[in-house]
Amino acid sequence: MKLKYMVLLPIMLLFSTFAHAGISSMSVTVEGMACPFCAFGVEKRIKKVKGVSSVDVDMRTGKAMITAEPDASIQYRDVPQAVRDAGFTPREMHISASGLLGKDENGSMVLGFENFSLSLKIDNNELKTQLETAMKSARPVVLNGRIFQNKAKDWIFTPETVEEPES
């Protein structure tokens, strides 16, 4: 009987970790906004993206700051299309994402969520060491950085900072 609980506890902890995993906030630079009506149109379109709670568009910087609904993840893949649907061009995107680090079938590092993962492109050796240490600990992490599509249309995440969330 005790063995059953010893096996179930790590599995339950793993799934509770994923309950809050995902993309909690995001920013996208929007090219071409010139007036408050433009900003309103961008905000209205982005708010329709699954998982989005709020959008704050700053016309001065040309950025839309996006926040996820509680216990939800922003569907980042839909944000560029929402910007285009508003009549503008999406540019650089940054995200804050939490999940578990692991390796894919090619041995590349990924940030895993409940039902998908993001491939990581790590340019900084110090950050790579931090990520490898975090991966070995099997604890969730929060990564902040740039997300983009490569020429093959795969989504790539370049983390700039890593932190372990408070338990």
Entry summary:
By secondary structure, the chain is α+β, with helices and mostly antiparallel strands.
The radius of gyration computed from the alpha-carbon positions, rounded to a whole number of angstroms, is: 18 Å
> Which class do the helix and strand fractions yield?
alpha+beta
| Average pLDDT for all residues | 86
Strand content: 35-45%
Question: Which ranges are low-confidence, i.e. pLDDT below 50, for 5 or more consecutive residues?
Answer: 1-19
**End-to-end span in angstroms?**
28 Å
Tally of separate helices:
4
The major β-sheet equals:
5 strands, mixed, barrel
CATH class: Alpha Beta
Question: Which strands sit side by side, in order, in the main sheet?
Answer: 4-5-6-8-7
* Succession of helices and strands: HEHEEHEEEHEE
Number of structural units classed as domains = 1
Instruction: Find the CATH topology.
Output: Alpha-Beta Plaits
Helix content: 25-40%
| Count of extended strands | 8
The general outline is: elongated
In the CATH hierarchy, the architecture is 2-Layer Sandwich
Task: Characterise the protein shown here.
The chain has one domain (10-163): Alpha-Beta Plaits (2-Layer Sandwich), CATH 3.30.70.100. The protein has four helices and eight strands, in the order H-E-H-E-E-H-E-E-E-H-E-E. It has helices spanning 2-18, 36-46, 79-85, 125-137, and strands at residues 22-31, 52-58, 63-68, 89-103, 109-112, 117-120, 141-149, 155-163. It has a five-stranded mixed beta barrel. It is elongated.
